[in-house]
Amino acid sequence: MRFLLLFLLAAAALSLNAADKAQSAAADLGSVKVIMLKTMTAQMKYDENEIIVRPGEKVKIVFENGDDLPHNLVFCQPGTDTMTMAMKQMEKPEEAIKRNWLPDDKSIWLHSKMLNPHEKEELIFTAPAKTGDYPYVCTFPGHALTMNGKLKVIPMGQGLKELKFALFLGNWKRLPDFSKLKPHREGLVPDNLIDIKLDDYKNEFGVVFTGKIHAPRKGSYRFYIAGDDGVRLLIDGKKVVEYDGIHPAGTIKEESVQLNEGDHEFRFEYFQAGGQIAVFAAWKGANFDVTPLSAWRPDGWEKGAKAKKKADYAPIPILVAGEPVIYRNFIQGAGNRAIGVGYPGGINIAWSAESMNLALLWKGAFMDASLHWNSRGGGYQAPMGYDVLKPTGEVTPAFFVAEKPDAVWPVWEKTKRYEGFAWKGYTLDAKRSPTFRYSWQGAEIEESFSASGDGNKPGGNPTLIRSIKITGSLPANAWYRLGAGAFEEKEGRFVAKDRLPYSIIAEGAQMAGQNLVIPAKAGTLTITYQWAQ
Amino acid sequence: MKPFSLFFALCSSLLAADPVESDFYKITTFETPKETALEVGSIDLLPDGRLIMGTRRGEIWTVSGAGSTDPSAVSYKLYASGLHEVLGIAYNPKDKNIYATTRYEVTRLRDVDGDGRADVFDNVSDAWGVSGDYHEYAIGSRFDKAGDLWVTLCLTGSFSSVTPFRGWALRIKPDGTMVPTCSGIRSPGGLGFDAEGEVYYADNQGPWHGSCTLQHLVPGSFQGHPGGNEWYALAPNMGPRPIDPSPENYQGDHKRGEARVGGDPGRMVKERERIKQLLPPAVYLVHGKIGNSASAIICDTSAGKFGPFMNQLFIADQSHSNLSRVFLETVNGIKQGVVFPFRLGFASGLIGGRMDGEGRIFAGGSDRGWGARGGKPYCFEKCEWTGKTPFEVHEMRAKPDGFELTFTQPIDAKTAGDLKSYSMREFTYAYREAYGGDEIDEILPTITAAEVGADGRSVRLKISPLTKGHIHELHFEGVKNTAGHPLLHTVGYYTLNEIPGK
Fold first, then answer.
1. The pLDDT value given to residue B252
2. Which chain A residues have a beta carbon less than 8 Å from that of B104?
3. What is the pLDDT of residues B415-470, one digit of tens each?
């Protein structure tokens, strides 16, 4: 029989909970939170897009321009449309240049100078007392779309109350049903922090912590746990999150639960099989930040389970400046032979050299290459921008031979090709906009796109015009499908009855069941896509 | 007096310092364009002396001034971007266009408006499948002597081929016709030619491969991994599908990394007798010793400008960030030969490489996905001969009763003729579906003779026994040159597929 001695901070004189501790630390005279923020080389972004501070905290931001272009750092009041603010100064560029591209805008409450490449500046300030998301941005022309972030002013939440422990002895590989076991020893945890204090290296025991947790208002709360070995967290007797089995403590698991305002029963179960010992628990609410409920915290605990993933794959946005940019890779929703094209003005498409069809179109930023340019290059990357349209679904050909146009079009099979299609390539015009070339059933087809309006700003009326030039003869009963799903005809436009309404305009188009089609014949087909109705 | 004697010991070791690789082959690291991570995947030469370089990030760059003695003279211009991993780049002297092998396509690029950037991207061939699995890389060659381009296709993962021609080598004819050419490929890392234009690829340790290998792509051959053999149904030119390896060589119940109770029964040398299309690797690039992740194959065609190793092959490695040296010969109609360590110390994992007419090897790569000893995330470098000849085993040839070694310098007859200067160990790997494998069936043969040749630069070793199918690991620590220096590298691994007849 092995001896096991377990002390749970029995000698602790303090009874501060975690939140009190954190706040008292921040209020210490001369205590300043130091944050390093850098612009990244040739990536048009800051190295952090989120900075978290406490209300009223003293903060020093060491801002370094690591890029070869000038950049500044401008903080605005919550709700400021920083894109519009940065673009507005282009209306009077002479004045803006005099101000070194710092907008004359009341919402700005803190800013750096326009730093030259590799310059550094320190900003020392007291964080706003009012909680909220304070956007920050670089206001040099054209940078605001990708060079931005949020200063989150958010307090910590409350900790646990009336925390007790019960120690059990046993040799388990998974968490046992502690309710059926008799505790070896029980007691209070005076500092209300989950912790396991041993006087020696020990194995084969379990601990159940019980106490109360106070939800300041009705809403969703997120709980985080980690452990070495198995851990489980229950609220009001119901399991919220669990990480059972024998494992090291590195991985954080998290889940959300709805709670009414008031006190709730908190229960945290843990077992130790052998080796290292660690327990972590934390929670987060709508108006407070991740707050630890345990004495020990793994690296990156402030960001929860996403902490590690984020660090591995910092975004690598593919910037679209004066000319269209191409990105051929695995694009989610556009198959294995996808060709992404980002047009200047925040309009983007993904064309499939599998189905020889337009798979996606979207507004805003083009693509984030971080998934493919980290690690081995696998995985499907979704568009980086927003309002993604998929007029005909996933990678399905537009051309099809059918007696009746309400037929079911072919669906994508990952490992197969569509018969009758041959991919030829693309040619860039003088503006470097691609024309895709392919053949179908002997006919030669060329497809080009022209984008107008602005997909980067609200009300920019982004429009994409697609021209399909068909040369040669097509089979009888050939159809060209422009859209799949429900469309409503309104004054010559076909408006998608989708979660995200958009219009397709094409002369001669008609609805046939779930298909918006045109009879396919030689000539040029023009299709207009608009995000607005 | 202790510190004093230590001081002298240090001095004497410095004075008599043994030669090191960098005395003979110098590596120069180039600055790369700041706006990108130049993860070099492939390199070829343009007729005007510039290089053309494809990257894992899908860019193609033209590079000027890399041959200059001043590394800061290098300059880069972006020729194309947005392609899906350029792991093959080739200038075609016939039509003067650039060809890029990407994940799902061989693309011909043309700069019609002459602004130095490609504007026409023609699909030359996309006659193979891609399923979205990360492992399905496509590696492309330069143009071979017939004017064809070769493409080797990684399997879907390590074991299977879910879409056509994964695990195959294909030839793309000038008109775009695709010819399925060899089956049995697992995870190719590079394609290259020997001095006669024969085509080779480097495969990587995994199922059916106990080690990385250099393999000769003889049209019609089966290179060992049966995972892609269902595509014989789409390749009538290849004849009947090879019979599968014996059932006991498949994984069965034991998992990756787990040893099978009683050992694995499969041997390449035995299966060759059953499977007539099976061609054994020309050279095993012994795992963990020569490299862990073989990539580019570079032939020294500089006629002496790269030193004494004319027509030999240099194999790059991503994991070890090094170059190894291979001497090949043909015995009983098939290729076999020896690999020696050559040059360590590249800055990142090497993937692409090419020698120019002046005997300069340009190489580069990245550590992404697997890690590399070099330490940098990516690199572009040049390896040049300093003009000093290293003392090395120049060639190692199989003989009916042993091996013949030739040296790059006159040898000291006493040490070279001393049996104690040599030691040999023979081993092989199991031919099995499970991942990788140990060095097994070890034999410690007797070296019965070491006869120094009349030319003073060669030695004839008699070995008992020689073992067909085994790797013959020869150490020659004791051999000195006439100046009393030891060999720069003191080990070679000879893959004895065939024992020459008397």
1. 59
2. 336-337, 353
3. 999 999 999 999 999 999 888 889 999 999 999 999 999 999 999 999 999 999 99
Q: Which residues, 6 or more positions from B473, have their beta carbon under 8 angstroms from its beta carbon?
A: B286, B424, B425, B426, B427, B491, B492, B493, B494
Kindly list the distances between the CA atom of residue A129 and the CA atoms of A17, A21, A217, A290, in Å, as whole numbers in the listed order. Answer: 22, 19, 21, 18
Cβ neighbours of B129 in A, within 8 Å: 415-417
* Mean pLDDT (whole number) for B319-348: 97
Q: Which residue shows structure tokens 């003009």?
A: B387
Tens digits of residue pLDDT in B181-212: 999 999 999 999 999 999 999 999 999 999 99
Q: Which residue has the higher pLDDT, A510 or B250?
A: A510
Distances in Å between the Cα of A421 and the Cα atoms of A174, B34, B224 are 55, 40, 34
Rounded to whole angstroms, the Cα distance separating A343 from A353 reads: 19
Q: Which residues, 6+ apart, have CB-to-CB distance to A463 below 8 Å?
A: A347, A451, A452, A453, A528, A529, A530
Q: Which residues of B touch A326 (CB under 8 A)?
A: 81-82
* DSSP collapsed to 3 states, A208-253: EEEEEEEECCCEEEEEEEEEECCEEEEECCEEEEEECCCCCCCCCE
Residue of chain B whose alpha carbon sits nearest to that of A318: B82
Q: Mean of the pLDDT values across residues A123-149?
A: 91
Our CA-based measurement puts residue B162 at a distance from the nearest CA of chain A, in whole angstroms, of 7
Q: Are B397 and B329 in contact (CB under 8 A)?
A: yes
What one-letter code names the amino acid at A59? V
Coil/strand/helix, residue A327 = strand
| A187 vs A498: CA distance, rounded Å | 58
- For the beta sheet containing A33-39, the strands, ordered from the edge strand earlier in sequence to the opposite edge, are A33-39, A58-65, A120-126
- Residue B93, exposed/middle/buried by CB under 10 A (0-12, 13-18, 19+)? exposed
Query: Which residues have C-beta within 8 Å of that of residue A70, sequence separation ≥ 6?
Result: A114, A115, A116, A117, A140
More confident: B158 or B273: B273
pLDDT-based confidence at residue A307 (cuts at 50, 70, 90): low
pLDDT one-digit tens code per residue, A351-364: 999 999 999 999 99
Question: ipTM, 2 decimals?
Answer: 0.94
Q: Please check whether residue B104 is in contact with residue A354, taking contact to mean a CB–CB distance below 8 angstroms.
A: no
* DSSP-assigned states of every residue in B165-223: TTT-EEEE-TTS-EEEEEB------EEEE-TT--EEEEE-SBBTBSSEEEEE--TT-B-
Report yes or no: B460 and B451 within 8 Å, Cβ to Cβ: yes
